[in-house]
Amino acid sequence: VPFLTWYTTWFGRDLSDQEIAKYLADEKNPRHIQHALSQIEARIEKADPNVKRFYPQIVSVSKSPTGEIRKTAAWVMGQDNSAPEFHQALVGLLDDTEPLVRRNAAVQLVRFGDAGGRPELRAMLGPYDAKSPMAGTIVSLLATGSKVKAGGLLARIRDLSGTVQEFRSPLDGTIDRVVVREGEQIAAARTILWLSPDRATINDALRALQYVGTMDDLPLIKSFLQGSAASDAEIKQQAVVTAKAIESRAKN
User: Are 69 and 81 in contact (CB under 8 A)?
Assistant: First the structure.
C-alpha cells in the first residue's frame, strides 16, 4: 500500500503520451492533472516537439474550477512563449479570482514581452488585503507577525448559521496588521488583516519588472533599498538591478 500511494502521487514518475492525455482529462482528480502538467513542463524544457499535441488541453484546464490547477497551468504556459494560444490564455487569467493565479499569469506574460500584468506585479510588492468571504463573528485569528503559507489558517469565523468556518490564506506572507478582534461581528468582504509579501514573491516581482517596469515603478522598487528590506542582500541586489534596467530603457 505505501508503494502504491507513492507511485500514484509522485509527480516525478514518467507518463506516456496516453497517460498524459488521460490525466489531463481527469477532472475528478486534480493531482492527476497537476502530474500531467509537470510532465509537460519537463518536455517543453527539453524542446520535445511532440508536446504541442497537449496544448489545447492545457488551455482547457487553465479554465478549471480548481484554483491550484489554474495556477499550475499558468506557470506551464509561460514555458513556451512561442505559443499564441498560451499568450491569450494568460491574458485572460489576469482577471482570475485567485491572487496566485493572477500572479503566475503576470510573471509568465513577461516571457511573451507582454507588460499587461504590470499592475499585478506591483501588487506583489505590497501588502495584500485579506477580506472575509462571509459575514459572522470572529472566533479566533493569528497574531501580527505570524508567518503563513498559502492555504494556512488565518482565522475561524462563526457564520450566520452558527457554523464555524475556516478562513485560509490565499498567499504566502507575514501578517503585517490585524484590523479585527476576536468576538467582533463582521460583514462579508470585511478586511480581516494585511499580509506582507514573502521573500520569493518580492524577488519574482522585481525580476519581472526588470523587463517590463517603467519609471513610475522606481519609487516602489527603490523602497526595497531602505528600511528592513535592505537587510536582505538578495532582494536589495535585485532591486538595484531592476532599477538600473528601467533607467537604462528610459534613456534609450
Answer: no
Q: Return phi, psi of residue 148, to 5°.
A: -135, 155
pLDDT digits over 92-140, tens only? 999 999 999 999 999 999 999 999 999 999 999 999 999 999 999 999 9
DSSP 207-220: HHHHHH--GGGHHH
Tell me the residue type at 141.
L
Q: Is the pLDDT of residue 7 over 70?
A: no
**Residues 81, 107 contacting (CB under 8 angstroms):** no
CA distance 191 to 199: 23
Dmax over CA atoms of the chain, in Å, equals 63
Is the Cβ–Cβ distance between 138 and 157 less than 8 Å?
A: yes
Q: How many CA atoms lie within 13 A of 127 on its CB side?
A: 14
